[in-house]
C-alpha cells in the first residue's frame, strides 16, 4: 500500500519507517517505489534491513535522483555488516544526490571502512557521513581519515566509538 502511494505522491519529502517491520517483501516494494518517486528526500529505514534489503536499496540509489538523506542505524536493528556496506558504497559511486548517510551501529568492519574510503575518493555530493559505533578498529579509522585528503565535499565524518 505504502509503495503504491509513494509512486504517485508528489508532496511527501520525509519518511521515517522506524519500528515498522516491513520484511523483505515490503522493503523490495518500497525500494521499487523509489525508482519513480521524485519528491522523497529523506528516508529512515525500518527494522531488520538485511543484505537482501540492502541489495534492493542499492538498486534504488542507482536510479533515484531525489533522495538526499538516508539513515540506516541500529536504533532500528539493522545489520548490514561489511557485505552490505560494500554494496552500499558501490552504489554511491553512481549516486550524485545523497548528501547525508547515517549507517551507525551496523557491524561494519575494516573491509567496509575501506569500501567507504574509495567512495570518499570519488563522491562529490556526500557532505555528512556517520559510520560511528561500527566494528572497524583504529586501522579502519585511519583509512577513512586518509580519504579526507582527497575529498573536498565531506564536511562531517562521524566515526566515534
CATH architecture: Alpha-Beta Horseshoe
Which class of secondary structure composition applies to the elements? alpha/beta
**Count of the separate structural domains:** 1
Strand order of the largest sheet: 1-2-3-4-5-6
Global morphology: globular
Order of helices and strands: HEHEHEHEHEHE
Plain-language structure description:
The chain has about 160 residues and is an alpha/beta fold. The protein has a single domain, classed as Leucine-rich repeat, LRR (right-handed beta-alpha superhelix). It is built from 6 helices and 6 strands; from the N terminus they run αβαβαβαβαβαβ. The model has no long low-confidence stretch (mean pLDDT about 90). The chain has a 6-stranded parallel sheet, with no helix packed on it.
SSE blueprint and pairings:
Blueprint: H1 2-8, E1 14-16, H2 23-34, E2 42-44, H3 51-63, E3 69-71, H4 81-94, E4 100-102, H5 110-122, E5 128-130, H6 138-147, E6 156-158
Parallel strand pairs: 1-2, 2-3, 3-4, 4-5, 5-6
Helix pairs in contact: 1-2, 2-3, 3-4, 4-5, 5-6
Organism: Cetraspora pellucida
InterPro entries: Leu-rich_rpt, LRR-containing, LRR_dom_sf
Protein name: 20581_t:CDS:1
Keywords for this entry:
161 residues; alpha/beta; Leucine-rich repeat, LRR (right-handed beta-alpha superhelix); 6-stranded parallel β-sheet
Amino acid at each position: 500500500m505504502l509503495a503504491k502511494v509513494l509512486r504517485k505522491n508528489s508532496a511527501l519529502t520525509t519518511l521515517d519507517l522506524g519500528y515498522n517491520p516491513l520484511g523483505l517483501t515490503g522493503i523490495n516494494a518500497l525500494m521499487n517505489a523509489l525508482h519513480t518517486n521524485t519528491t522523497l528526500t529523506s528516508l529512515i529505514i525500518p527494522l531488520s534491513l538485511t543484505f537482501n534489503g540492502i541489495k534492493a536499496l542499492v538498486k534504488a540509489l542507482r536510479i533515484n535522483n531525489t533522495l538526499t538523506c538516508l539513515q540506516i542505524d541500529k536504533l532500528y536493528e539493522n545489520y548490514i555488516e561489511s557485505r552490505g556496506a560494500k554494496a552500499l558504497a558501490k552504489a554511491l559511486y553512481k549516486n550524485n544526490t545523497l548528501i547525508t548517510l547515517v549507517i551507525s551501529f551496523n557491524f561494519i568492519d575494516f573491509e567496509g571502512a575501506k569500501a567507504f574510503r574509495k567512495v570518499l575518493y570519488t563522491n562529490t555530493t556526500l557532505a555528512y557521513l556517520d559510520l560511528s559505533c561500527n566494528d572497524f578498529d583504529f586501522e579502519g579509522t585511519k583509512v577513512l581519515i586518509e580519504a579526507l585528503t582527497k575529498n573536498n565535499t565531506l564536511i562531517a565524518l562521524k566515526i566515534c566509538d
